[in-house]
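User: Hey, my collaborator sent me this sequence without any context and asked if I could get a structure. I don't really work with proteins. Can you help?
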Amino acid sequence: MVIFFLALLFAGTAQAQTYFGTPGLGSGGASFTTLYEVDAAGAPVPTDGSCPGCVLLTTAQHTTAQAAFAAVGQSGVVPRLRAGVTITFALTPSASGTYSADQGFIEALGVKLNRFSITGSFPGGGSTIQVRDTGTPPVQHTLTAAQAKVLYGVLLDYASAVSDAAATAIANKTAPIWPVATSSSTL
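Assistant: No problem. I've predicted the 3D structure and written it out in structure-token form, which is a compact way to encode the shape of the chain:
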């Protein structure tokens, strides 16, 4: 009786997951611009069953493309912003570095610049500001008000571009095309 029950339990045919993709150059390592799946029950994803120009994918290709697309989510955007932007100051190479573009860093720098614009000095009464880069270990750089303003603008622009790239990728269901994370200043 037990053997008969086990035979019935495992008698169903196993259906593997089937993956399809639209070939194209997707950023982040994806070789496909769109992914579609047919689940184990044979139900198509998307539900309309359409997949214009699709080709059959191996599990490895699908996994690689999914990882690239996942870079759009919070798990990809936040580390990208924290990794920051490399900025080169032509006249003051010691101020050059890679600075975080995450919200906390940008807001803190903005508060200090706002104080400078109101009082003519940074916190502590100085005409320069100490800013740490993202190095390991972090390096503290001395910036003038003009350099800090340039850095602030570069970081705001980069954060906005990363946000736009993620939003576009999500809307189009494609891998993101990330902005360049370098900048230079004549200061």
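In plain terms: The chain has two domains: 2-70, 75-185. You can pass these tokens on to your collaborator as they are.
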